[in-house]
Amino acid sequence: MKTSAWRDERGAVLAVELVACAPLLAAFILLIVFGGRIALANQAVQTAAADAARAASIARTASTARSQAAAWAHTSLANQHLTCVRVTVDVDVTGFRRPVGTPATTQVRVSCDLDTSDLAGLPGIPRTMLIEASATSPLDTFRERRR
């Protein structure tokens, strides 16, 4: 009996489909990794902002509040292993001008330029992505404040 030429090539279609779908599957996996990295970075920056706001709120002076907030934000981001190209910490210390006995707050805004250069295989993904978060913490109403 003679076998048909069609039977000898029946696995070739599967190989062609696999080769055609492999780049799409790889791009989909990279997209999932990118989404997860952005979600984790947002959480890490929010935590850093909360830590920095708390550190600023327990300081006695506005200048100490600024330096403590920046130090805690950088430490928090480092502890969470977040790779930022640049970190900016803006601290609002106008609450220190209010007299003792009146409620006041400090607000901290942390910005991180997240390094996404290792995911450059996906089109449309920038090399860095700006992640920002802010947090507010109350100053102790009856604690001494100095400008």
Features:
3-stranded antiparallel sheet; 147 residues; 3 strands; alpha+beta
Give a written overview of the molecule.
It is built from 3 helices and 3 strands, in the order αααβββ. By secondary structure, the protein is of the alpha+beta class. The protein has one domain. It has a 3-stranded antiparallel sheet. The longest helix is centred in the first third of the chain and has 46 residues, at 12-57.
Secondary structure blueprint with pairings:
Blueprint: H1 5-8, H2 12-57, H3 62-79, E1 84-92, E2 105-115, E3 128-138
Antiparallel strand pairs: 1-2, 2-3
Helix pairs in contact: 2-3
Low-confidence stretches: none
Kindly report the spatial arrangement of strands forming the biggest sheet: 1-2-3
Alpha-beta content class: alpha+beta
Query: What value does the average pLDDT take?
Result: 87
Binned, the helix content reads: 40-55%
Inertia-based shape: rod-shaped
What number of domains? Answer: 1
The percentage of residues in β strands lies in 15-25%
Helix run count: 3
Written as H for each helix and E for each strand, in order along the chain, the element string is HHHEEE
Could you give the distance between the termini?
Answer: 99 Å
- Alpha carbon gyration radius: 26 Å
Secondary structure tally: strands: 3
Main beta sheet: strand number and arrangement? 3 strands, antiparallel
